[in-house]
Design goal:
This protein is an alpha+beta fold. The protein is about 25% helix and about 25% strand. The chain has helices spanning about 1-20, 25-35, 65-70, 85-95; strands spanning about 75, 80, 100-105, 110-120, 125-130, 145, 150-155, 160-165, 175. The longest helix is centred in the N-terminal third of the chain and has 17 residues, at about 1-20.
């Protein structure tokens, strides 16, 4: 439906631009505004905030120091910074309190891999970003929606955090070894 509305709006704009008059017909503008508005909306409606979390922007080089300064939970080969932020996030999920956290883990080569988790009080939106991993293939920020977090035990006996009840396999990309 949105695609059709966008196509119609573009067609109207193109037709208006191709006309001999430089003045836009007010009725055309009304039509464009009506087509781009959500159904059953009125001018008194307040815009809804976007679902994208406001994580600090990441630019190369994204060093562990900069990640920590941005408030990320940082894991550099088992050495954690801002680990208390992870504890707070998991507690908020248990209490059903909205929260968000970004975990940045570094590869052996020193490249950051980002895990952005946003909890809305019901589900965790997980976004995986390996675009700065020079030895990996950019996955284009896949996402998953998950119900919770649990502690699992790896074959080597170490415990780690994992997302549960995800709507797709991308949720399996997340792991965070317990300290």
């Amino acid at each position: 439906m949105k695609k059709l509305i966008c196509i119609l709006a573009v067609a109207v704009l193109l037709l208006a631009a191709c006309g001999n008059e430089t003045k836009q017909n007010p009725n055309d503008q009304d039509l464009i505004e009506m087509q781009t508005q959500a159904p059953n909306s009125n001018e008194d409606d307040k815009p809804t905030p976007t679902e994208e979390p406001d994580f600090p922007e990441v630019k190369k080089p994204y060093t562990p120091e900069l990640a920590a300064q941005n408030g990320d939970v940082v894991n550099v080969h088992g050495k954690y910074t801002n680990a208390e932020r992870w504890t707070e996030f998991t507690s908020n999920v248990k209490l059903e309190v909205k929260d968000k956290v970004r975990v940045t883990q570094y590869t052996i080569e020193g490249d950051p891999i980002l895990y952005e988790l946003t909890y809305n009080g019901e589900t965790i939106k997980f976004v995986y970003d390996n675009s700065m991993d020079n030895f990996g293939v950019d996955s284009k920020r896949p996402q998953a929606s998950c119900k919770g977090i649990e502690v699992k035990k790896h074959d080597n006996g170490k415990e780690y955090y994992a997302l549960t009840e995800c709507d797709n396999e991308k949720g399996e990309y997340f792991w965070l070894e317990k300290e």
